[in-house]
Every structure is written in C-alpha cells, then in structure tokens.
Design brief:
Elements (H helix, E strand, L loop, with lengths): L6 E6 L2 H12 L17 E3 L5 E6 L1 H9 L5 E5 H7 L4 E6 L5 E8 H5 L8 E6 L2 H10 L3 E6 L6 H4 L5 E6 L3 H5 L2 E10 L1 E6 H6 L1 H16 L2
Parallel strand pairs: 1-3, 1-4, 7-8, 7-9
Antiparallel strand pairs: 2-3, 4-11, 5-11, 6-9, 6-10
Bound molecules: adenosine-5'-triphosphate and 1-O-pyrophosphono-5-O-phosphono-alpha-D-ribofuranose (PRP).
Length: 220
C-alpha cells in the first residue's frame, strides 16, 4: 500500500483525460494548475482536497498502479480493466465517457467469406491478448496473439495476420485501411475503479469519492 497518508487517484493521460476533466470538477476534485499543462514533467499533483493527490500515467498503467495499491483509485477504460482482470480491482462507477467498442476485424474480402463456425486456430494482432484469447476460447478457438501497441490496422495488409482485435469508435480507421468489423466483443467506456484493500481499510474517504464521481457522472 502507498506509504504516504494521502489517497492517490490515477488518471490516464490522452483522450480520456480530456473527457473526464469536467467530471472531476463536478466531483469536486480540482487539481493544481500544472496538471492541465501537457508539457509539465511533474507526474503527481495536489488537489483542492488536502487528502487526495492525482497521478497522470499511461492508460494501461492506471490498472497496474491500482492493482498493486500504489494508487487507491483510478479512472480506467473498461477495455484496460478487462485486459488486466485483476482481483484487487473493483470498478463500481461507469463514468459514461470515452465510449467505443472492442471488435474483431478483417480485410473486407476475407470478412465477406468469413464463417466463424469454421474457425479452429487463428493468428490475431492486438493490444489486448488476454481479452482476445478469452473471446476466442469461448468459441472453442485457439488464438495466437501478436501483441502490438498501436497502428494495428496495418497488420492484415502487411501479412502479419488476417484478423485484428482493436478499439473502434467511428469506424474510420478500419475503413481507411480496407478492414471491416466481423464481431463486436464488448462496449467500452471509462470507469472509476478502486483498490479493494483500500476500500476495506479506508472505507470513509474511498466511498466518499465513489459517491462524488457517481453523482458527477449522473449529472452529465
Ligand atoms: N477511438 C478510441 N480509440 C482508442 N481509445 C479510445 C477511443 N475512444 C475511447 N477510448 C478510450 O481511451 C483509452 C485510450 O486512450 P489513449 O488513446 O489516449 O491512450 P493510448 O494512446 O492507447 O495509450 P498509451 O499512449 O498510454 O499507450 C482506451 O483505453 C479507451 O478506453
Ligand atoms: O474507429 P475510430 O474512430 O477510427 O477509432 C479507432 C482507432 O483509434 C485508436 O487508435 P489511436 O488513435 O489511439 O492510435 P493507435 O493506433 O496508435 O493506438 C484505435 O486503436 C483505433 O485504431
């Protein structure tokens, strides 16, 4: 557990941060000014609440800080929480921002003749190997996952694999790369998640923040 007495909230830099800034304000979590300066090298920030600090980390790392108790709360995409699937993480609040979905996609010519009943062993490029393996295993299919960290839509066209599992929002990245969606795996949105041990040992302040974020999401 984090050594200092303050609670720590991990938030992802990048697109979710822009979406949750108004929500944080409604929840009464007001970070110091440097937090909104993208060029600042500072990583931990005080807030208007003397008992709460915020850290700004990469989106997958929100779950890592939370799982090991280095952060007590985190804003994370449900895609990240699904991939991480850690028993110490409990995600009680759907923040209803950062909407997109996880999908299987393939080149249009392959998708036109695709018969999922005939899948037995597939190679799939993805940023989400655990979600992907679980999704295919439920269908009795063994998925060999090639982990990429971005630009997944290149993989089928360059012969790395025929299928990908990636996030889709507008669908324009798939379309621009000649891919189509074959199946939708899960809807995605940002969640407020907490470390279960922190919830047990510091129920007062952790539950208070859960309630404030829940109200802020409802008021949106
Ligand atoms: N169109 C989208 N594409 C990707 N992520 C989206 C989209 N819409 C919402 N999200 C959410 O935003 C999160 C990713 O944020 P962002 O793209 O800023 O980080 P990233 O570039 O994937 O992460 P990092 O740079 O830390 O590896 C996803 O985990 C998802 O929950
Ligand atoms: O359906 P769309 O609206 O086109 O959005 C989906 C795309 O956005 C994300 O990529 P991102 O911009 O994060 O770049 P990346 O490839 O580096 O992950 C995601 O991985 C898809 O590629």
């Amino acid at each position: 557990m984090n050594a200092n007495d303050k609670l720590v909230l991990a938030v992802p830099k990048g697109r979710i941060l822009k979406a949750i800034a108004p929500l944080m304000a409604r929840a009464g979590v007001e970070p110091e000014d440097a937090f909104f300066d993208e060029d600042a090298r500072q990583l931990q920030f005080a807030t208007s609440d003397p008992n709460l600090d915020i850290i700004r980390v990469r989106s997958f790392d929100t779950a890592t800080f939370l799982a090991f108790g280095a952060a007590h709360l985190a804003v994370s995409g449900s895609d990240v929480l699904m991939e991480f699937d850690h028993p110490e993480i409990y995600a009680p609040v759907n923040l209803d921002v950062g909407h997109c979905h996880l999908a299987v996609a393939a080149p249009a010519d392959l998708a036109a003749n695709e018969d999922p009943q005939r899948w037995s062993h597939l190679r799939v490029a993805t940023k989400y190997p655990n979600v992907t393996r679980r999704y295919f295993a439920r269908r009795g299919v063994q998925a060999e996952c090639i982990k990429l960290n971005g630009a997944l839509e290149l993989a089928p066209n360059l012969g790395l694999c025929r299928r990908i599992v990636d996030l889709v929002q507008t669908g324009s990245t798939l379309k621009a790369n000649g891919l189509v969606e074959i199946d939708r795996i899960a809807d995605v949105s940002a969640r407020l998640a907490v470390n279960r041990t922190a919830l047990k040992t510091r129920p007062g302040p952790v539950n208070d923040l859960i309630s404030r974020f829940r109200e802020a999401a409802r008021a949106a």
